[in-house]
Amino acid sequence: MAQVTADSLIGRLVDGRYQIVARVARGGMATVYRAHDNRLNREIALKVMHPHLAEGDQAASFLQRFEREARSAAGLQHHGVVAVYDQGTDGDMRYLTMEYVPGTNLRQLIRDGDLTLRRSFAVLDVVLSALAAAHAKGIVHRDIKPENVLLEQGTGRPKVADFGLARAISEVSNTTTGTVLGTVAYLAPETISTGHVDARADVYAVGILAFELFTGRLPHAGEGPIQVAYAHVNTDVPPVSAFAGHLGRPLDLLVRALTARDPDRRPSDAAVALDALRNTFQQIPNEVLDIPASAAPPPSQAAVKAARTAVVERPAAGRWAAQRPQQPPPPPPPARSPRRGRKVLLAVAVVAVLFSAWWYTERGPGAYAVVPDGVVGVAAQQAEEALTEAGFTPSSVEQYDSEVPEGEVISVVPDEGQRWERDERVRLVISLGQELAEVPAGLVGMTGQTAQAALREAGLTDVEVSREYTNDGARDEVIWASVRDGDMVPTDEHVRLTVSDGPPPVTVPEVVGLGADEATGTLEADDFDVQRQERFDEKVPAGTVLGTEPAGGAGAQQGSTVTIVVSQGPEGTVPDVVGMSVEDAQATLEEAGYTVALRGFGELFGDGVTETKPAAGKHLKQGGEVTVWTW
């Protein structure tokens, strides 16, 4: 088959709405395009499923599963999740529309090799937090890997893509071929051996991802997928410290727990794994957190031996001190003359030599020297000795510097190599080392604004705040910080705070078409407060729910109010006032254009309306009389 170099979908208008602009990526399940939503005038990602996934007898089953999983993913709201907007079909095309995240993915960051442990923990924290939100809704990702962790351009914030969408594809693949779908390097042993997938399989994949972030490599190597799969099933993941000598036992224990071959020995879901990750983070020394994963391989025996036997000392700064200028040669001996003449000439010569020496050292070249090289970047005492040897008087000032170690010279005034009068002061700027600030106590538990103010007061101004839904903390309360209470950290430290957005939103049930009482009971069962509004409708029978605010299927906070709009039937239809107080019933009937006649003892004893004549839903010309019974 000839190779196709052009993509026929570029430029196509999908479903009369989405204009495909460019292809972003192609994977085993789908091709992702950048597209423009002409209706909402925004840029989106359009994910087009490969047609072969729904061919033959499995087409209908695939479409049902695909739509079901897309709806589940669309209901997942989390700052670390790529949002799913819509799903649909256009001819034989099955597609999803999602949030477009410009930038790169975690695979590229791993390849670059400059990930620090601190950054790796921050990425894993967001991934597990997003998975925890999914697992709480019964959604399993099934395909966690670096390619599915996108990094926002500019901010570098991670977002997890393809939530829940592998399930529909996996079920069709299992049914038709008996194979397991997924990226073999991250598949859990039980998924490979039995096809079983639950939240613990996602935890295993995150454990493999953590190993890769910490060491820059995957734990199992092989010539092909079969050998790698065999290793997952039959071999434990090795300790990370075996591949990166600066990593210690806490990281070994974390990765071992996440990647246990027996799923019963792993954390039960991502929320439990997230707690383990954050507890481990607290045990890592600050100096280790900022070492890039690729910067500290385990030392070899040869390197250890060389370090012991090949110590090279830096030459003393004084070796580069400028030498004093050569003294002028003495004057030639006087010519033979009579004795008196010799005495006069000798006196003149002495005076000339003394004057020359005075001029040379006080006004001439001998009054100056050159500031020696090699005083910048050495210890302060060594630099002072070099300046003194060169004929200068050293003085010093101190300042903080994030690059020059404490006690070493940052700069010299005047600069090295410049001429300067002898015995004049030469100023050395000495490093105090990196300026440190003490992390305020009690950040976790403060409100987000209070925590930021406390950090600024401590001298830490580079603060990034993200928010996530959680049941663990009150809304606007800090639930995690990238620095620990009382730690001394550089003042330019990038501090990350995670602030609670309160409990996760719940989905409003769909109650349109139900009776008002049934709809109210359904909503109250999900802990919503219910308010009722009524309006006339020519087509919908009285007492039937026309709609809700928020609409069914939308997300809303637990305990919030949902308003149901109930039909009063066509105008000229008696409203349903049974159960209302006499005052409310009378007001409702009069608002509908009827006069009211009261019967019974409800006015005396406070009972509500028990019956109307004509009954609710009956037609009665406006201005007619409705009898209200109250016993």
UniProtKB/TrEMBL annotation:
Domain Protein kinase: from-to ranges: 18-282
Annotated stretches, region: Disordered: 315-339
Low complexity bias (residue ranges): 315-325
Domain PASTA: 365-432, 502-568, 569-631
Origin: domain of life: Bacteria
Recorded GO MF terms: kinase activity
Annotated catalysed reactions: L-threonyl-[protein] + ATP = O-phospho-L-threonyl-[protein] + ADP + H(+); L-seryl-[protein] + ATP = O-phospho-L-seryl-[protein] + ADP + H(+)
Enzyme class, spelled out: transferase
Annotated EC: 2.7.11.1
Keyword Kinase in annotation: yes
Stretches with biased composition (Pro residues): 326-336
Keywords, alphabetical: ATP-binding, Kinase, Nucleotide-binding, Serine/threonine-protein kinase, Transferase
Protein name, UniProt field: non-specific serine/threonine protein kinase
Lineage: Bacteria, Bacillati, Actinomycetota, Actinomycetes, Micrococcales
